[in-house]
Design the sequence.
């Protein structure tokens, strides 16, 4: 089959690979119909995530048609068109039973800190992902969810990650009616977090980035007040000035390890690898939130460590909340939101490409070319 | 000195004065993530799924006491990078050596991947893999600028190296002329 093939930092190509097969009685094989490239993939693409092996197929946001199921699969049958949450979760362990599907203990041999994620390095379990014609889907009765017939598969594919992650970012912010919420990052996740902040009753939503077309999109779509951090001399002072000198009630980090905006962090974290990427957006979030405020982190960082002003977290009495999104937990609510028109996921899709254009897809998304917000690959012609 | 590690030290909460008097289930910053309905079922006591039989080498974090029920089987460790990875897995996820060795292995893997391609008689089209076509289409000026910078920098570097080599040669000749015995003594004259 055709599949994306990682060859080293900044190098992904479409190549031929053996078909995946059932390796566990609860596995299914799906024929992929849609598969996104995500900001999380960019951390892999840039070589920031340890144990990213050459030859791996990335892709944790995909939908597909069930082709074959293992002997213990009961809920799915061949022909079903399903959306596949990015978390691989058993549904039975201590964590899954608490709704922490992003923290399953039965899906990742290589690490205990991270759950299992499709196509996300061996640090997330070493599973090949969905940027391919076919994918192996473990615990097929737990994660995969039938796409309702009224739902456009282009909406469905964004329910595998972007929408739940943005929603959970806002949810973890504990937003109360009238709160001022600042979202760092106007990528798909940040845009969705800002959109969802309103659903929780935010009084003001401010989005920070430096890519103008994305800020303009966020301004209209979320809608939100937007600012370019390159025009701001000092983020903490700026947010204080915006909030009667108190600070924001909630700050959301939707940037993660690939943040730009600090030469020091870029040198330490990205060039020298002495930090797990650059944590400047998180630094800004901590220093811009009010005392007693909440910082919600969905931006992804590597497993080593980052330099952040933890002393200010203490002195200001900040609550930090963070996680990989628990997609399955949120799906019923989010499907309702899509149906009610509260969230319009597919509006984020700017690029629709064939699987063999994957090298260009990564470049366009990573370098923010051609007004790209969300690129989606269509293996098997989307059928 | 006695070790704390070898003495049994279990404390029975029932014997502690004031135990639980301020317990408050609302004091839960994890709302709404942690569903606590299954009360006392703590620890690794769940009814496990069937276990996958590993058919390739799977490295296991030392923080696990057993393999999880399902396993990823993409690219098992191989070659020099695989050896480094195996070494890295002697250390826990809490140990920097674990991650730094894995990053080193990733870079070695990249070289091995290149050799692998060549061994199969395939010259990888690296610019294409890096999406140069997209840059050409959507960022032509930027791409040309980058290419020009690379060209100028490498031309300058070559020039500098050449000049430096020429000077060094002249220096050597000069030295030989100035101190003929000395240079003969350490046998470098020729
Ligand atoms: N927790 C989860 O479950 C989860 C799921 C999906 C994605 N993520 C993470 O969310 C983050 C965003 O994902 P995405 O798909 O939107 O990625 P993206 O790369 O498209 O967006 C990131 C945006 O942040 C901007 N940015 C860079 N530095 C900044 C700074 N200092 N301040 C403000 N903005 C800055 C970039 O210009 C870009 O627009 C990534 O780290 C990704 O790994 C987490
Ligand atoms: Zn994603
Ligand atoms: Zn589980």
Sequence:
């Amino acid at each position: 089959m055709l599949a994306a093939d990682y060859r080293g930092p900044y190098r992904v190509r479409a190549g031929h690979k053996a078909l995946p097969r059932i390796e566990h009685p609860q596995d299914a094989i799906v024929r992929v119909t849609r598969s996104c490239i995500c900001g999380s993939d960019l951390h892999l693409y840039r070589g920031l995530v340890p144990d990213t092996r050459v030859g791996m197929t990335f892709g944790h946001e995909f939908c597909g048609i069930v082709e074959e199921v293992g002997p213990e699969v009961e809920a799915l049958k061949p022909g079903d068109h399903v959306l596949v949450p990015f978390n691989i979760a058993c549904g039975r362990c201590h964590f899954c039973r608490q709704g922490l599907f992003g923290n399953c203990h039965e899906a990742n041999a290589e690490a205990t800190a991270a759950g299992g994620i499709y196509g996300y390095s061996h640090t997330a379990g070493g599973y090949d992902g969905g940027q391919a014609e076919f994918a192996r889907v473990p615990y097929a009765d737990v994660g995969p969810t039938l796409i309702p017939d009224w739902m456009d598969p282009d909406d469905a594919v964004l329910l595998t990650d972007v929408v739940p992650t943005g929603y959970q970012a806002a949810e973890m912010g504990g937003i109360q009616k009238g709160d001022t919420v600042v979202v760092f990052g106007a990528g798909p996740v940040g845009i969705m977090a800002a959109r969802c902040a309103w659903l929780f009753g935010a009084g003001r939503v401010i989005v920070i980035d430096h890519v103008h077309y994305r800020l303009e999109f966020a301004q209209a779509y979320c809608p939100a007040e937007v600012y370019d951090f390159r025009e701001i001399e000092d983020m903490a002072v700026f947010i204080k000035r915006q909030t009667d000198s108190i600070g924001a009630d909630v700050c959301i980090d939707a940037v993660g390890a690939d943040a730009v905006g600090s030469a020091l962090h870029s040198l330490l974290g990205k060039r020298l690898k002495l930090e797990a990427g650059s944590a400047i957006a998180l630094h800004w979030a901590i220093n811009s939130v009010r005392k007693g405020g909440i910082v919600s982190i969905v931006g992804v960082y590597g497993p080593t460590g980052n330099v952040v002003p933890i002393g200010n977290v203490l002195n200001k009495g900040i609550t930090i909340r963070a996680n990989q999104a628990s997609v399955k937990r949120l799906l019923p609510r989010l499907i309702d939101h899509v149906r009610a028109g509260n969230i319009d996921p597919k509006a984020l899709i700017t690029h629709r490409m064939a699987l063999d254009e994957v090298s260009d897809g990564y470049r366009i998304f990573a370098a923010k070319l051609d007004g790209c917000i969300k690129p989606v690959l269509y293996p098997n012609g989307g059928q | 000195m006695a070790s704390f590690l070898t003495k049994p030290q279990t404390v029975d909460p029932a014997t502690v004065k004031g135990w639980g008097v301020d317990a408050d289930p609302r004091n839960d910053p994890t709302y709404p993530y942690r569903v606590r309905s299954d009360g006392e079922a703590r620890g690794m006591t769940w009814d496990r799924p069937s276990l996958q039989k590993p058919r390739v080498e799977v490295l296991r974090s030392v923080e696990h006491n057993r393999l999880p029920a399902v396993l990823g089987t993409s690219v098992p460790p191989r070659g020099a990078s695989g050896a480094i990875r195996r070494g890295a897995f002697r250390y826990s996820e809490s140990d920097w050596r674990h991650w730094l060795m894995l990053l080193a292995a990733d870079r070695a893997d990249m070289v091995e991947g290149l050799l692998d391609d060549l061994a199969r008689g395939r010259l990888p089209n690296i610019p294409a893999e890096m999406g140069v076509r997209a840059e050409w289409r959507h960022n032509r000026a930027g791409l040309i600028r980058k290419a020009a910078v690379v060209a100028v920098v490498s031309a300058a570097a070559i020039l500098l190296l050449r000049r430096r080599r020429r000077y060094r040669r002249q220096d050597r000749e000069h030295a030989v002329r100035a101190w003929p015995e000395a240079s003969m003594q350490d046998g470098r004259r020729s």
